[in-house]
Amino acid sequence: xxxxxxxxxxxxxxxxxxxxxxxxxxxxxxxxxxxxxxxxxxxxxxxxxxxxxxxxxxxxxxxxxxxxxxxxxxxxxxxxxxxxxxxxxxxxxxxxxxxxxxxxxxxxxxxxxxxxxxxxxxxxxxxxxxxxxxxxxxxxxxxxxxxxxxxxxxxxxxxxxxxxxxxxxxxxxxxxxxxxxxxxxxxxxxxxxxxxxxxxxxxxxxxxxxxxxxxxxxxxxxxxxxxxxxxxxxxxxxxxxxxxxxxxxxxxxxxxxxxxxxxxxxxxxxxxxxxxxxxxxxxxxxxxxxxxxxxx
Amino acid sequence: xxxxxxxxxxxxxxxxxxxxxxxxxxxxxxxxxxxxxxxxxxxxxxxxxxxxxxxxxxxxxxxxxxxxxxxxxxxxxxxxxxxxxxxxxxxxxxxxxxxxxxxxxxxxxxxxxxxxxxxxxxxxxxxxxxxxxxxxxxxxxxxxxxxxxxxxxxxxxxxxxxxxxxxxxxxxxxxxxxxxxxxxxxxxxxxxxxxxxxxxxxxxxxxxxxxxxxxxxxxxxxxxxxxxxxxxxxxxxxxxxxxx
Amino acid sequence: xxxxxxxxxxxxxxxxxxxxxxxxxxxxxxxxxxxxxxxxxxxxxxxxxxxxxxxxxxxxxxxxxxxxxxxxxxxxxxxxxxxxxxxxxxxxxxxxxxxxxxxxxxxxxxxxxxxxxxxxxxxxxxxxxxxxxxxxxxxxxxxxxxxxxxxxxxxxxxxxxxxxxxxxxxxxxxxxxxxxxxxxxxxxxxxxxxxxxxxxxxxxxxxxxxxxxxxxxxxxxxxxxxxxxxxxxxxxxxxxxxxxxxxxxxxxxxxxxxxxxxxxxxxxxxxxxxxxxxxxxxxxxxxxxxxxxxxxxxxxxxxxxxxxxxxxxxxxxxxxxxxxxxxx
Lengths: 296, 244, 328
Prior knowledge:
heterotrimer; B: Rossmann fold; 4-stranded antiparallel sheet; globular; C: mainly alpha; ABC transporter involved in vitamin B12 uptake, BtuC
């Protein structure tokens, strides 16, 4: 066993962890955003991620599996997820904002259950897989080891999303309002901004990111029921160790999580999942409220 | 009894307490006054351990209490009421007070005894002393604002405190309620030998009740003395009384 | 101390009547009814243990089923993989569950409300993942079936009575806890943790104790499930089950003592019925939950109480509240 762990193996495993971290970041930043503004952990986040992956698969297949289909899926799948969340928000969720927090949370629980079964009804319990478009297939040599092109693509997308989110929340009016609402919602209400609309916006944007994560991950994993549970648990842990509602915390948490898991595979393949948990336990023992400052 | 020396506390962007000094002796009724934002509530929160001071010393009965957690400080004999009615809304009035008596008697973790039979007498006595015995079965959340504030004091009394800290005990009360509440405070101090530290906006109340007054401004102690000394002090007149 | 001091007369009467009926059920009911009822007992105990935390303690223990699973797996594995007497597993189950609850609780109680809930779900799910992946020990997804039980516990009627006895004792213990100074303090912490600290209560330590008690009884429920089914499988630790028991508490009424029992009875019946019609049970669960959130946030027992208050004078209702502690 030991002899397989070479330097190049370490590096490629590290890069795999990094690209996994990019997916985790995109999903958990959406979760973190909703958490920051609405102060609700969106349990349905994982289901929306799963739906994003399924929709991306369906769209890409319908378009013939080429590059055009891939790009189309990458844009339309998150949009579809955003529309689903918008419907849920406008029809039901928005009537609960005045209620106890627990009720909001339980609602997202209910949404997760319903979306889970709806996915099962629509797509069935089979495993599906999506092939990356031709120009992202195969591997390139990185530091002497072959590394999948698609993972490189993910490594590029992650920072772009991070930058986009940063620009959005710091440079646009809506973003600034959303950030202000996260810190002091009474104040935002007092200066005459429709808080309900801000909430709706934040919720839909967060869910869009979940869908985007799902669409991006679809060529790298087998798309199946149950992928919602793993991601939601991981995303919860990531925002907890990162600091609730903190975008950079989500990034830091994702990196720790993704890398510790991929390195753990080298050490103990069957229980690689235990390593990120260990990291979480260590971090929370040292700093109970997460690495970076939580917004509330 | 209580000695606060050169206490500092700043939050992210402003300094709430910036050099507060305070001395409370056994049996005194000390009022802290000062304009809004002078740092009175922050000072109280520092004393009771709900906030941690950046710098300075707090001694109570010759013991450093700076580093203690809120529940430990309470065990030293300091009980408090809060500025907003801080009670157990879903519990009955009786239970509200019983909780703190149980805590005082170190019974809160007792598992296999019915709470109904414990500390009933003590609880009733406290309710009687504040005049809430008649409402002991009401749900606390349904009380009037004035009664809620009194219940707060009753909860604090359950800890058999030596020092009782009241944060604006009459805020939001009608003139009659204010008068009767301050009567109650005076009576508690007299009958039970309580030392009381409170802050208050109504200057008539302060000068009527307090034996000593500490004036705060911008987080700093201006002066501490008897009501006469404070009244005579020119700085205070300029800064506060004169303005009002 | 008279009986009525501990149990108010009306609820004592109801409980005794219910117990009597349950004792007589095997005389006329069929196998299936007996089995379903026995399963209700297990779920009722599990939901009750959760409600000690969520309803009375205001502690967001969102993944309570993990400890039910720990209790069941401990008992099941000891019975299936060792030569030790089965009773050893029966005792070890709840203890292991409480130990797991203690360890996870240690991390969680340092955080407040939602933070607590999120970390609790995640750490609880770790137990699920271990049960799923540790194939050599737990047989992973397949679970272990046909676990042998002692001679004493054979036959569905015997098992029924065994479960009824254990659950009755456990609920009585939980009731004592509920009525104890600790129970009162716990409800005070739910209402206002900050105030509790100011009256000298170590909030975290109380919450941790509540978690240990609750996870212990969740472990007992897990062991009882093994007695009933002779199986263990990873779905027992899955968070959908946690949500299901949370809904039982919500449905029955958070702030009442017996609410979760009512909720458990309804949910198990519903599940049995729905399961025979459609495979989409989780969707039904989600819809039920949404309906509850919108139309019945205080639960069935909660409604009862409110109607009751309207009929009597306010004072009498308050006395009733003190009596049954429906309001605290």
